[in-house]
Amino acid sequence: MSSPLALLQTLQRPSLLRSTVAVRRRHHRSHPTAVRPSLHFPNNALKYWDNFYRRHQDKFFKDRHYLEKDWGQYFSGDIGSSNGKKIVLEVGCGAGNTIFPLLASFPELYIHACDLSPHAIKLLKSHADHKETQVNAFVCDVTEEDLCDRLAPSSVDIVTLIFMLSAVLPSEMPKILQNIRGVLKPDGCVLFRDYAFGDFAQVKLKEKDRMITENFYVRGDGTCSFYFTEDFLSNLFLGAGFFTADMSIYQKQIENRLKNVTMDRCWIRGIFTKQDCRLPDSVLASK
Description:
The chain is globular, with a radius of gyration of 20 Å. It is α/β, with parallel strands linked by helices. It contains eleven helices and ten strands. Helix 6 links the parallel strand 1 and strand 2 (110-115). The strands form two sheets. A seven-stranded mixed beta sheet has the order 3-2-1-4-5-10-9. It has a three-stranded antiparallel beta sheet with strand order 6-7-8, covered by helices on one side. Helix 4 packs parallel to helix 7 (118-125). It has helices spanning 4-11, 14-30, 40-43, 45-56, 66-76, 99-105, 118-125, 173-183, 200-207, 230-239, 281-286; strands spanning 87-91, 110-115, 135-139, 156-162, 184-195, 211-213, 216-218, 224-226, 243-256, 261-273.
C-alpha cells in the first residue's frame, strides 16, 4: 500500500492533475449546482462550527487524556517559574475535551477557555464538571478580537492550541499567534498539537478535490482543516516572535475492520516559547 505522502506526491504530478481538471470540468457541466471549494467556508467559520456543535453536541471529540503524558511537567509546575496556581488559556476549547481532563489531573489549574462558537461555550458551561472557580469560558474570535481586552497582558503561563490553528485560513494564523503572545508571560509557553502533512484525512480530501489553498481543505460539513509541515509551523511561530523548544511528528496506523481500511494518521506536536530556551533534560529523557 502506498504511503499517504507518496499518494499526495502522485496526485500532484502534472499529467494526473490535467486529467483531474478534465474530470472536474465534466463534473461541473453535468452538475451545474455543484459548489467548488472557496473562501466562502473559512469566511463563514462561525456558522459552520456552530452547526457542528449543534449537530454533534459534546460527543464527536474524545477527551484528550494524553495531554498529561505529553506535557504533564508543564501543568504540574515542574517547568516554569510561576508560583501558586498555573494559569492556562485554551484557544478553541470546543465543548471542553481538553480542559476537563486537565482539571481532573491538575485540579490546581485555573483555565481561561475561549471558542468562536457560542454553542460550544454553552455546552462547556453545562458540563457536570464545570466550575466558575476553575474555568472562565467566553466566546471570542481570536482572528478579530484582542485577547488583552478579556485577560490581563502577560498573565498566562500556558496557551494550548489543540487542533485549533488548522481550522483557520493560513493567512489568519499569524494574527492568532500575535494575539496569544500578548497575554502570555515572558517565561510562558504554547503547547501545540494538530494535523500533519500526509495524514489519511488529507489524502481523502485531496482525492475529493476539496482543497481551498495549499494544504488547506474544506470538509463535507463546511468546517476546514490545514495540514502542517515542520518547516511551515516553525517559520509561522518564528514570524510571530516565538522560539521552537521542541517539535515532532507522530504517526499511527489505525485499522477500520468494518470498512476494511487501514488509516495512516499523522499529527504534529510542538512547544513554543517567548524566550529562546531548550527543554530541560528531564523532559527530553521522557520523550
